[in-house]
Request: fold
Amino acid sequence: MNHRGKVLLTKIGLDAHDRGSRIVATYLRDAGMEVIYTGPWQQIPDVVNLADQEDVDVIGISSLATDHALVPGLIQALREAGLGHIRVVVGGIVPNAEADELIQAGVARIFHPGASRESIVQEVEALAAEARTTIEQDHQA
Amino acid sequence: MSAVDTGRDRSLEALVERIVDGHPRSIARAITEIEDQTARGESILQQLPEPDQPAAVVGITGPPGVGKSTLINALITELRARELRVGVLSVDPSSPVSGGAVLGDRIRMARHASDPGVFIRSLASRGQIGGLCRTIDRVIRLVHAAGFDLLIVETVGTGQVDVAITEVANTNVALFAPGLGDEIQALKAGILEVADILVVNRADSPHTRGTLLELESMLALRGTEQRRVPVLATIATTGEGVAELADRILDLASSD
Reply:
């Protein structure tokens, strides 16, 4: 079985608007990916452990009401746990002024409102493949 | 995907050592290799030490929405209170169209995410029928080697004849929802015949008593030589009935 990418879609913080992440979950499923879906209100240490146990390639954080501000903390926690190979993407409402900060913190891609199904699928698939390559290089080392 | 391992592979040996030590990341990576049916996955399985004792595997099966994941969540809490280390393998269906999957069982088990005595992994069925995935027996072997006291395997939402779970689990728990169908359903062949414990979950429903009676009268028609099968009522969301379920599971697991 070919590994098409395993993605964790989740929400951290107090915002409960998860319709966007449900839509993206179906996009990725329909593109042949395996998506671990959690509801909102996850805590960063739990997300790190979940990503670890599920061996995911990409984490997608859905954000409507400022949860994106917590993403740099998530990326830091992933790196500290030795999971720096996992690509993190953010989808939802991210003000342009704050987008650069997120990219600098290590976010691989931000999907703003209007991002097409095709671009989400293609980019997530490519990021998953990158993460997988990193793991395989680890095996060789 | 991975290169074929030739001869002595130090990184592989180290990985197997970490798996046996119960290191979550190593278990997780190895499961991916097994799921993807890679050569490296095969090598890992070959290098696993022979287990001291057979795995205690509890199968949880039942129709979609009956409360399997929620009941497992409550069971984990109960088993952890008894200081048992628990591995959970939850299978959800892969799309017959795209091959993709949305794996959502963990939503119900979120409170155990950071407990080091619990390892939870979602698995997609990847085209396998019968309620499980093709590689489940190998994943069970691996997680067993990592030293968990009890393994819980959750099937996809099943129908009447999805009995693959009985081939990998030594204690089979079948869940029912109150008030589905009439008493003839309880006479039908299939999962009812092979379960070791029957559970009516969502027992806060007014239909609970009727469903319990139907299952009990079905069991009363069985020959006396067959093992007595308990019928329990649980409310997974509150934990009611879960301690008794854990007792029965542990009784059966130790007698097998």
